[in-house]
Amino acid sequence: MNITNETATNSDKKISILFRNTIPEIPSTTFGAFAIYKYPAKFIPQVIAYVLREYAQPGMTIFDPFGGYGTVGIVSRVYGYDYELWDLNPLIKTIHDTAIISKIEMNAWQLLEDMKKSQLEFLPTWSNLAYWFPAEFMPVLAKTWGFVNSLPQESKAMFLIPLIKTTRYFSCSDEKIHKLYKSKQSKKKIEQLLQTDWQAKFYTMLKKQMETLMKKIGEHNQLNPKSVRCSIKPGVDVLETNLDHEVNIMITSPPYLQAQEYIRSTKLELFWLGYDEDYIRELSKKEIPYRKVKEFEIHSEKYHQCRAGIIEEHLKELYDRYFYSILTVFSNLSQNVKDYMFIFVGPAQIRTTPIPIDDIIVEHLQTLGWYHEVTFIDTIVGRSMFQSKINPASGFADSRMKTEHLIVMKRQG
Prior knowledge:
Elements: E1 14-17, H1 45-55, E2 61-64, H2 71-79, E3 82-87, H3 91-99, H4 108-117, H5 129-132, H6 138-149, H7 153-169, H8 184-194, H9 198-220, E4 230-234, E5 247-252, H10 262-272, H11 277-285, H12 301-308, H13 313-333, E6 337-345, E7 348-350, E8 353-355, H14 357-366, E9 370-379, E10 403-411
Helix pairs in contact: 1-2, 3-7, 6-7, 7-9, 10-11
């Protein structure tokens, strides 16, 4: 869908859509490999599929610098496009390698039995390990992870996501909350587990998680994913990394304005995957907008209007850091994007001040020679994040985003 009126204002170029109803070949947002792990604020696959179906041409390359779960790559594979994914969080590599499994060429159940007899051990080098896991669980966790780490990559990929989920359940964290958080409910869960045959339950849960993953892989293969070239770059700091080659299309969703703690939310998983404490701490320091960033000239009237309405200095600093960061990234990376940029964002508030993130991005990119073709307004149907009547950070009534906006920018000339 194209809007060609050059004189139309950005507000005239907003069209309501329900992406999940636009792609009949992907019957649900949780179909196949699109739901093998609960990653915060991930793309629904239909957004990417819509972009590829309506705008991409054969032979184009697709790029996502905020890869997250890896949905852009997984969908690109279905439609036969080469792709490149970056993300600060190394978990993207584990999710991606699992999502693209095409065949299960192993006896998973025999390996599960071998795991129980294994004498190999692995424990994370994590100073808070004992805080999150009871001592009683450690021998089984050490043996299980030691065995899985000894497997060849093809077999290992089949085990990692199920084992991550099971390990999380057997921790003191509340697995229903994305953040690493010890709740009253999670403490009670551990107390009850310790009074049962928890070891048998551990292996039963792991087996069920593997059965679920196998079902998801079989389901996903119904979409006939293609063999394409791909590049996955975990641990990438987008503010310090240049795109040194051309791509045709960038599709991405930058971190939300005040909900970007993806490393902190997944560090339990990262420790068990073998990343050390210093590395994870350094990654956490690079999350947007909690890092210091160079001041950046922003060409947007709405940016300055909204900034004037923010009273508290620490919130003004957070606001500045966010827009300095994402607009620096888009300004730099856009130089090597040949055709389109698709940027998916949600409207936000700082205290009670609405922040039209999509309009600010559009106004800035227009000064760099990009044409704003349209912004699609998608209604959020479901959200896995927990909700509360009062936002604990602000003390004000909690106002969750009801829509998300897909900005379509086309290179001029």
